[in-house]
Structures are given as C-alpha cells and as structure tokens.
C-alpha cells in the first residue's frame, strides 16, 4: 500500500465516456471512485455496504481519452456503522507515461445488515 492507499481499479476510458468538450464525463469518474471505495469498504465491513455521502470532491485536471486511470483508496476514519474512504484518481498519460493527479474525494459508506439497515462494523 502507498500513501495514496491500495490501487483498487485501473481502467481506460472509452469513446462513449467523452463529453462535448472532448474530456471524460465527471459522472464516469465519480462512478469509478464509488466502485473502488465500495470495494475497500466491503473489505472493512466484511459484508454489504452502501454509499451514503460524498463529503468532498475536487476535480483537478480533465481526464483525456487515452489516459490510463488508476483509482487508489484507503480508510480515512471509522465510526460505529460507517467509514470514510479517501479516494484519489491519477492518470498515466502520453508516451512519457507522465503521472497526472485527476481528482480526489472522501466517500462515506455504511455497513448493512440483511435487512439493508445500518449495522456495527467488525472490531479492528
């Protein structure tokens, strides 16, 4: 694990992910972040989780077609039933494979029981 956390996803945006400006839709990257955060939250909760909030979100640089997008995630804090997952998105761009920070945010997930109600997280 790095300072950013674990690399959870590595994806390449497709032509269908481009907006009218020639950049990748913000919603596309939000969904990739939610998927990656959910994977980490599921591991921590040892079961089902749901996204309940995006506490902060910052777009730094547009995502371009051809970028290799890496999504990093790590636990930032934990409550009784919920956890905050810090998510950072980085592109590997161009022939020189330059690393470019794209976006970051903190997503909150809650652990769910069989009835889809909040349940306590497992002990550390």
Automatic annotation (TrEMBL):
Pfam name, any one: 4HBT
EC number: 3.1.2.20
Keywords (A to Z) from UniProt: Hydrolase
Superkingdom as given in the UniProt entry: Bacteria
Record-level Gene Ontology MF annotations: fatty acyl-CoA hydrolase activity
Keyword Hydrolase in record: yes
Entry-linked InterPro entries: Cytosol_ACT (IPR040170), HOTDOG_ACOT (IPR033120), HotDog_dom_sf (IPR029069), Thioestr_dom (IPR006683)
Repeat recorded as keyword: no
Domain HotDog ACOT-type intervals: 3-115
Protein family membership: Belongs to the acyl coenzyme A hydrolase family.
Name of the protein: Acyl-CoA thioesterase
Organism this protein belongs to: Sphingobium rhizovicinum
């Amino acid at each position: 694990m790095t300072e950013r956390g674990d690399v959870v996803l590595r994806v390449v945006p497709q032509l269908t992910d481009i907006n009218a400006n020639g950049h990748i839709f913000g919603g596309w990257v939000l969904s990739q972040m939610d998927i990656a955060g959910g994977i980490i939250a599921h591991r921590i909760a040892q079961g089902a989780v749901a996204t309940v909030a995006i506490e902060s979100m910052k777009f730094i640089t547009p995502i371009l077609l051809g970028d290799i997008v890496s999504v990093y995630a790590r636990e930032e804090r934990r409550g009784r039933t919920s956890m905050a997952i810090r998510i950072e998105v980085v592109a590997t761009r161009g022939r020189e494979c330059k690393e470019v920070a794209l976006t970051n945010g903190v997503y909150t997930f809650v652990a769910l029981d069989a009835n889809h109600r909040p349940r306590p997280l497992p002990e550390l």
